[in-house]
Amino acid sequence: MFANKKKIYKFAVIIAVSFLTGLLIQRFIFSSINHDKTKDNSEKHENTIKDEIWTCSMHPSIRLPKPGKCPICNMDLILLNTDNSGNSDVQLSISSNAFKLLEIETTPVVRKFVDSEVRMLGKVEYDETRLSYISAWVPGRLEKLFINYTGIAVKQGERMATIYSPDLISAQEELIQALKFKDNIQNSTYGTAQKTAIDTVKASREKLSLLGLSSEQITKIETTRASNKIIDINSPIQGIVIEKTAEEGMYVKTGTRIYTVADLSFVWVKLDAYESDLALIKYGDIVEFSTETYPGKTFEGQVDFIDPVVTQSSQTIKVRVSVPNESLELKPGMFVNAIVKSQIDGSSTLAPLIIPVTAAMKTGTRAIVYVEVQKKKPTYEGREITLGPKVGNFYIVKGGLKEGERVVTRGNFKLDAEMQIRAKPSMMSEDKDTMTDMQNEQHEEISNKTEQSEQMDAIPEKFSSQLNKVLQSYFAIQKAMVNDDSKDVSKATQLAVESLKSVDMTLLDHKTHMLWMKNADALSMTLQMLSKQSTLVKQRELLPRLTDEMLQVVQQFSVGQANIYKASCPMAFDNKGASWLQDSDKIQNPYFGNVMQTCGSIDEVIQENISGESE
Is 213 helix (H, G, I), strand (E, B) or coil? Predict the structure, then answer.
């Protein structure tokens, strides 16, 4: 029995030791787990603090690792919600709802040969290679001028004047005497004498030819064996007499110019091209142009010369076009509106890469596009590219894109704004490493605005007054469209054309003079197109273009005292939207007229008449 108790005691001891050992192991395991959890939470907390980005609601470009004040506006910084999508700084992912709200549209990058279209102004001139100058070949007296005023059409060989010249009479007598001598020794046995007589006749003929007589006139002298005291001067070409520089009875010297005759069956059209457009024009390009004399009729010619020298007064380059003119409709001195069409080639075998103009966001020397990276989850990447020339509604791409990639053509500016809101670097401006750079940039911006303001103040008051009449003509066009009156639109357009022609650009200095020339050319072209429209629908289609050009003018030049408001209607042109300028802060919609006169909103107050004086 004692042995049984001993066994029970041992068994109890074993159970107690096992229980205590298990308890210690459990405590050790739980302690390790809790320690790991605490360590993980601590690391996560440290990472969270480390990854925090504080930004300014007014200046999203500010990105600081801890809270504080904005160094620009001194506002309290706010904590930025970090993007855990894994995107790089130049990528942006948006939700499906945001995609719909931003109304993003994309277009593929393609290779395509495109036609350029450059508009230029110019004038019809004489073809210099088809001008003939009728001059005196010998000294003498002009007995009779049969063409006694300019503008007369003459035929080739037509008699234009007669001249009395002792030199010509003497030369004729020499030929007659040489012929008689030749006849007298015709039967002579001396060969040397016959050869001498023949050579003398030949020399006399050549002398008369050098003195300006035609072969027919020389033959007549040989036939009649009589000299003419008065010799006819005939026209060498068919054309129009454009200059008369002599009078009847005048004594002339050898080389004195009497008439200038122009062959107008071919004329030159000399166009003014800006330096920026020169890359789109080349030899052999077909040019279509029209004149105010023949509305609706189009003429055609070919570029045959590009002036190698820039015209200093206008900073343009002359482009010469050779034009057939058999009907003589084109008169030297006519003004023309021309369009040069040419194909821009990438290479001899490969078409160039092109993107729509709306895809590129240009910021000075840089060009930015947003490329679609993923379509299922809308993701876009900002990319800097190299652009070639602008061709119509497209840009040639020199580098930065590949064929087949899709670029954002609508909503790209909204994407860039969203990048800034999320405190990612805006693709529209280069990164600034220091606050000093930012301050310098702001200082430069203020200086530029000051300089621009000084430039506007320097514009003469007389020029501003003339420009104000152009602006008032624009307002008259806008109000006529509000009243649905197509005839009043035409009248106001004609008034605008006349007002624009009356603006004296010589009042401006060189820099503003050149700026005005470019603006005036664009305005003139649009007004001429508008003047040719007879329906209200077509007239309204040209108003956005006229508005853009007028807006540039009022922003770049002083137009005197005037109220100028920029308004827009999102429903115009099938919900595409359009803007216009008006002189009142109450909406006057020119696109819908009496149907919806008050549809729209004031987007910007460009200028208000502070003085309160009415125009």
Answer: coil
- Residues constituting the chain: 615
Structure letter (DSSP) for residue 69: B
Give me the mean pLDDT over the 581-603 stretch: 88
- Asked whether 281 and 270 are in contact (CB, 8 A), the reply is no
Whole-number Å distance between alpha carbons of 352 and 361: 20
> What local confidence, expressed as pLDDT, does residue 421 receive?
65
Question: Burial code of 6-24, b = ≥16 C-beta within 10 A, e = fewer?
Answer: eeeeeeeeeeeeeeeeeee
Q: According to DSSP H, which parts of 189-255 are helical?
A: 191-210, 215-224
The token pair at 539 is: 């007239």
**Neighbouring C-beta atoms of residue 316, cutoff 10 Å:** 23
| 433-440 long-range Cβ contacts below 8 angstroms, 24+ apart | 435/71, 438/61, 438/72
Question: Model confidence over 410-422: pLDDT tens digits?
Answer: 887 877 777 766 6
Q: Is the pLDDT of residue 2 over 80?
A: no
- For the record, the structure tokens of 358 come out as 């709306």
Q: Is the pLDDT of residue 103 over 60?
A: yes
- 78 or 455, which is more confident: 78
Q: At residue 311, does pLDDT exceed 90?
A: no
Distances (CA, A) of 223 to 159, 180, 182, 368, 540: 21, 12, 14, 86, 78
Encode pLDDT of 522-533 as tens digits: 888 889 889 888
Block residue for tokens 């003047």: 531
Sign of CA dihedral 356, 357, 359, 364: positive
For tokens 């160094």, what's the residue? 71
Q: Is the C-alpha dihedral spanning 539, 545, 548, 551 positive or negative? A: negative
Could you tell me the sign of the dihedral formed by the alpha carbons of 413, 419, 421, 424, in that order?
negative
pLDDT of residue 204: 87
pLDDT the model gives residue 227: 82
Tell me phi and psi for residue 413, to 5 degrees: -70, -35
**Is it the case that residue 198 has pLDDT exceeding 50?**
yes
Q: How many CA atoms lie within 13 A of 382 on its CB side?
A: 28
Which residues are within 8 A (CB) of 229 and not within 5 positions of it... i.e. 6 or more apart? 164, 169
Within 10 A of 283 (CB to CB), how many other CB atoms are there?
11
| CB-based burial, 472-488: b 16+ in 10 Å, e otherwise | bbbbbbbbbbbebebee
Count of C-beta atoms within a 10 Å radius of residue 460: 14
Say if CB 301 and CB 269 are below 8 A apart: yes
pLDDT in tens, 153-179: 898 888 889 899 888 888 888 888 888
Q: ∠ at Cα 468 (466, 471), nearest 5°?
A: 125
What single-letter amino acid sits at 102?
L
Residue 511: pLDDT above 80?
A: no
pLDDT of 443 higher than 50: no
Rounded CA separation 79/55 (Å) = 6
Joined together, the tokens standing for residue 209 give 């030819």
Q: Parallel, antiparallel, or unpaired: how do β-strands 110-111 and 299-306 relate?
A: unpaired
CA distance to 55, 59, 262, per residue, from 64 (Å): 6, 12, 78
User: CA 518, CA 559: separation in Å to the nearest integer?
Assistant: 17
Q: Residue range 229-243: average pLDDT?
A: 87
- Give residue 189's pLDDT: 61
